[in-house]
Design goal:
The protein has helices at about 15-35, 35-40, 70-90, 130-140, and strands at about 45-50, 50-55, 95-110, 115-120, 140-150, 155-170. By secondary structure, the chain is α+β, with helices and mostly antiparallel strands. The protein has a single domain (about 15-170), classed as Thiol Ester Dehydrase, Chain A. Strands 1-2-4-5-6-3 form a 6-stranded antiparallel beta sheet. Strand 1 (about 45-50) and strand 2 form a beta hairpin. It is globular, with a radius of gyration of 16 Å. The relative contact order is 0.17. This is Thioesterase. It comes from Pseudolysobacter antarcticus.
């Protein structure tokens, strides 16, 4: 079940809750069917509100030799949450762009011994409207995100600072 909060006025285009649900459902389906690792990790879109994107994953398929979450799984879900935030926001705007991670820095602060969720938001100083304007003008733009996995007590277990590039989608060759 994907959760949706009351939408703040952040998108340039007005979208209905039904349109957002359809967009999120389609994005999750594409994610699970186009990236085998995501399917194996059992990653799910938990929530999207236009400001944040939260993905969740169960511990069992993401466990390491110590019984806690594998660092590669944590990094993957953190990266996917940032990618999802940008891809879903672009989808709400009706914009057809490919989104790629350009670079990232992960910090592993505490072991994760349970199912986990990664929440992404735009990094401090980033501006969605400038990003969209640059996309319109140049056909590509960069945007930084901040993602975190928190423990039940609210402390960060892992964080990721990432820079993504969106580029106008070229037609695929036949």
């Amino acid at each position: 079940m994907i959760e949706f909060a009351n939408r703040p006025a952040v998108a340039a285009k007005s979208v209905t809750a039904a349109q957002t649900v359809a967009l999120c459902t389609a994005w999750q389906h594409e994610l699970l069917h186009s990236i085998p690792l995501v399917r194996a990790m059992q990653v799910r879109l938990q929530a999207f509100d236009g400001i944040t994107c939260t993905l969740s994953a169960p511990l069992a398929p993401n466990v390491n030799d110590k019984g806690c979450a594998f660092g590669g799984s944590l990094s993957s879900v953190l990266t996917l949450s940032g990618w999802g935030l940008i891809a879903l926001r672009l989808g709400e705007e009706g914009m057809d762009y490919d989104v790629y991670v350009q670079d990232s820095t992960a910090r592993y602060l505490m072991p994760v011994w349970q199912d986990f969720s990664a929440q992404a938001m735009l990094a401090d100083g980033e501006d969605w409207d400038i990003f969209v304007q640059t996309l319109h003008n140049r056909g590509r733009a960069r945007l930084r995100t901040h993602s975190r996995i928190r423990l039940d007590d609210g402390r960060d277990a892992a964080t990721l600072e990432a820079r993504f590039v969106a580029m106008r989608r070229d037609p695929k060759p036949a």
